[in-house]
Amino acid sequence: MGGKPKVSSKIIPLASPKGPEKLCELCQRVARLQCTECRATFYCDEEHQQADWVGIHRRICQLLVPIRTQTFLSLQRAGQIVTQQKKAELIEICRSVAQQKLSEGKHQEALPAAQFCLRCSIDVHGPNTVQLVPAYLLLAEANIGLGNVSRVAELLSQAEWSVLKSPDCGHAVHHRLHRSLGRLHMATGNLEQALLHFANDIYFASEAFGLDSTITCRGYFLMADAFAKQGKTPIVRSLYSEVTQIWHCHLTNLLENRIQNAQNPNVLLDSSYDNQSDKAQQVEVDDMLRTMLEFEQKDPRKDPAQVARVAHCLAMMWFLAGDSRKAQGFGSTALQAGQLIPNPDLTEPIQSLLQLVQSLQTEAHPSSDESQNSASA
């Protein structure tokens, strides 16, 4: 049976330690429990053990054994190099897990992975270095989702200080920092400061990835949210139109590549941004596109062309993700809106996608007549 693992099967009471006291993996309080799998990780209570297990520990439990055992750590230069390499691998695993959980809106579950990512990064790179910024930003994003604004401000202050001490750090680091600062000010209601940081986010992202990048256009979307809260609907519409145009072009190119290379079933939505998993990115992009579609559909002055483009984006995205039901649903919405305006350049691609979806559904589920004919033959 599935479900959560039994806590009692994963931990045992910690005997009176010889030497320094053991500390809880999550809160750094004095530990009284020990993981029975790796015997190198400790917790103050069962709740923190369970949270860590769900968040990250089940992914890295055995990887911690060689790093945290005294025999391994007692080796000289060669052992230290191997330890650093293994910690670098753990940083990447934790970063990937935390990012995926954040994209899925699982902020509480993302905390253990983000915290461990930061601790490992400090071990590998040292304190107050620019290499810690990605981990600070992961922790900040998790805490924004949980409403821990004061903790977010503290983490972003540390990230800013690290960036200020490294004037040669790349545009990508600046873009991510300003995006997080913008989200912090959105959470506190300081819309003008949020807009300033989102503007900087867009500038640095465009320098790093290009003005028409799907990464850059996320900044447009976040900026539109701030303008929406200010009641500036015309600006929101303009920004949403820009986001839609970029994603429509991007997904159209991916769809054309998929059709031309039908033998390759693994086309990523966007592999350029931190190598995020398909599923995590689909959740994020789906949420963004649905928000824009709902905005346009509720607007009394809704633009059928914009409705058609956004719905077409959703249809293409879910077709590429392998969900023909959602692709057909959004495709039908796009076609209905597109037929309200005489623009074959818009409606013909939608019709072609729906025909492609229909043909794949027919291949997967042949009609009863075809099945009977096949059987009789």
Automatic annotation (TrEMBL):
Does the UniProt entry include the keyword Zinc?
yes
Classification via InterPro entries: TPR-like_helical_dom_sf (IPR011990), Zinc_finger_MYND_domain (IPR053248), Znf_MYND (IPR002893)
Q: Which GO terms describe its molecular function?
A: zinc ion binding
Record's SUPFAM superfamilies? HIT/MYND zinc finger-like (SSF144232), TPR-like (SSF48452)
* Domain of life from the UniProt record: Eukaryota
| A Pfam family it matches | zf-MYND
Q: Which residues form the MYND-type domain?
A: 24-61
Key words, A-Z: Metal-binding, Zinc, Zinc-finger
Q: State the protein's name.
A: MYND-type domain-containing protein
- Taxonomic source organism: Amphiprion ocellaris (Clown anemonefish)
